[in-house]
Amino acid sequence: MHATSLFGPFRLEPASRTLYRDGEVVKLGSRAFDILVVLVERRGDVVTPRELMSVAWQGLVVGESNVRVQIANLRQALGSYGEGARYIASIPGRGYAFLASVVRVDEAALSMSTRPVWCAGTWSWRWNGT
Length: 130
What we know:
Elements: E1 4-7, E2 10-13, E3 18-21, E4 24-26, H1 30-41, H2 49-56, H3 64-78, E5 88-91, E6 95-98, E7 103-105, E8 115-119, E9 122-126
Antiparallel strand pairs: 1-2, 1-7, 2-3, 3-4, 5-6, 8-9
């Protein structure tokens, strides 16, 4: 089972297939969501389009253009953070990499009222009672 991941103002909950921004649900299609989960879990690694296709289009034969469309959808949904930095980088001829710092938390430790705070030029998550 995938752990909840926190990055920037976002909370990614693979178990419930939900992405939150500042506590509000961000609408994503199922394939874009699957791609985001892979990229976040492999933060900093280059993930090939073929790997992304095998997750988002299990058993179907599709072209890399389908991945590009879903990456564009993700970038639009995520926007940018701090001084124009991007969450997802394209690595020419190789694939994609997730750039933001990611904190993984156990569901039991995560409060639904937890929200990110902009502090010293970066997003920081604050937990109630800690």
